[in-house]
Write a structure and sequence with these properties.
Chain lengths: 335, 335
């Protein structure tokens, strides 16, 4: 092959191919991509990333048009050393971006975390719960019921202070110890968070075992309990390659908020078990091809992830990043 | 975490998790998985695999219940050195499996290839064409029209001898030189192969740029031309992570034959541009989760791919294989 493939009819600004748009009936016209790479992605990375690099990453993702960039977690450094710089990072971001940084969501595991967010004048927080007993005990060191007791004052005080609260719910499809998680169990846990004052639920397939029919069944179960798609976000992991097929099903079910991690941060391309989040770029490729608007510049996210892969010293797990990023090009230009 | 996650409610024979079944309305009850790893997968692998290993691989995939295992291609060794052992491989397989080996499809690029298939008493052959002018020239060294002139006597003589013929059509979504490929151009090329005597078309997204809406539009365009889903197979590549989302859309459009490559053979987990076929295991995981029957033993395919990854000296690109295969376990047991 003597020529460089260029995609004459449709190509990005750098001559790289772009997905071809072919809308599908019945899908939402527009969705919100909720970027979790800086928090959920980095907290699963072994290499501790300098705070300046994190600030640059978050700034670039924000500049790429991502409407929600979850910046960090005010978790105790003992549990997640990678995020021990949470206050410093938010300080840097407020310096650079002002109010835009104060509008970036952060995770607050408990009231102490909330206090730190309130001190900085942040406007959006998230709590992180489990739909299963076993994972509540293992991840939060609390029983299923005790986790809600911990969230209750956190959510109440956040709401009283005028903040919005997102409720993450993990293990909504399968749990490594409990197996398949019954739909009504997930709905009950979600409703508890909503009744407490959470505005949105992010339903996580933490171990990536769900498939498309399961996604539709879960959305239907929430609808039966009076919880509409406007309150739900989907948080898929690509452990078994299902994240985009599940996203396709969720779009058909009317879901309009999807969590994703730039470059698939948090997964490892070498690991036997790549438990990472769905890559933002792979999600954007599909949405763009389906004609679903996001307001996000795919090229800019790819460039950011290629640069971050360099910082982490290894390729990105994202298929789109690996296919589009070129050595000496986006990855190193910082453009 | 002190315990090993085991998936109490649903686990495979080895205690590993299985997808949780949650059927989706309107999908086919049963589909055919057409295994292309030994031909399309291996022809893209750099390491030349010994013929005995290939025979073992094909035998194991057949034993796993895969109803169609495309074994090799009678292509000139100059073009694909990996498949220079095609006749020897088929001889070994006939020795071991008898008529079952004669029922395994093989690719025949032209009449000389067909002669070799006829000599061995094989019953199913496939030809490989392009939906675009540029790729016909680059892959076949023939113009778009000249390729059909080459296929015509091949297909005619195969049919006269009582064989079935599958027509592969590559670049059905996007072409690296020509960009988006118009639907009617793909349909015209497909209809020419069908009118020649091909029984089934395999529509390839060779560079993996298609998305779900495009898949449905292409199936609809064939239907308008009088070609029903019973004549169509889908052949997706995971270059941009879209293969399973596209499969989900194709299932909804009524497609019941899907090409896949065991372990994602042909792609490279390290490459920037992993252009490999959809992994059979990732496809089986989704179909099993959707309650769509295939008759294939997922565990047996995973074990085969893990063993092949050892033969090739690198991890499998399949998410499911990487998640399920354990060191010292399936990969090395040969079980």
């Amino acid at each position: 092959m003597s020529e460089t493939p260029a995609g004459r009819h449709q190509a990005g600004s750098s001559g790289r191919p772009l997905p071809m748009t072919s809308a599908e009936e019945g899908l939402p016209a527009e969705v919100t991509v909720y970027e979790v790479g800086a928090r959920d992605g980095l907290q699963n990375e072994q290499v501790v990333v300098p705070v300046e690099v994190k600030a640059e990453m978050v700034t670039r993702l924000h500049a790429a048009g991502l409407p929600a960039v979850e910046a960090t977690s005010f978790v105790h450094p003992k549990w997640v050393p990678q995020l021990a710089d949470a206050a410093e990072l938010m300080g840097l971001l407020v310096e650079r971006l002002g109010d835009a940084a104060r509008r970036m969501p952060v995770l607050v595991p408990n009231e102490r975390g909330l206090d730190r967010a309130l001190d900085l004048g942040l406007e959006h927080v998230a709590v992180f719960g489990s739909a299963t007993e076993t994972f509540a005990q293992r991840n939060l060191n609390r029983s299923y019921d005790e986790q809600f007791a911990m969230f209750e004052p956190t959510v109440r005080r956040a709401r009283e202070a005028g903040l919005t609260v997102r409720g993450y719910l993990s293990m909504c499809f399968g749990d490594p110890w409990e197996g398949a998680v019954p739909l009504d169990q997930v709905v009950r846990a979600g409703v508890r968070l909503l009744e407490m004052g959470a505005g949105q639920l992010s339903l996580g397939d933490t171990i990536g075992v769900g498939t498309a029919g399961h996604v539709k069944a879960l959305v239907a179960a929430f609808a039966e309990a009076g919880v509409g798609v406007d309150r739900l976000a989907m948080h898929f992991h690509d452990t078994y390659g299902q994240a985009l097929a599940n996203t396709h099903a969720a779009l058909q079910a009317g879901i309009t908020t999807f969590d994703a991690s730039a470059g698939g941060l948090g997964g490892c391309p070498y690991a036997r078990s790549a438990t990472g989040n769905l890559a933002t770029e792979d999600l954007l490729w599909m949405l763009q091809g389906l004609g679903v608007r996001t307001g996000v510049d795919l090229d800019a996210v790819v460039a950011t992830s290629a640069w971050m892969a360099g910082q982490l010293g290894r390729p990105s797990p994202s298929a789109v990043v690996r296919a589009l990023a070129e050595p000496g090009g986006l990855a190193e230009s910082g453009a």
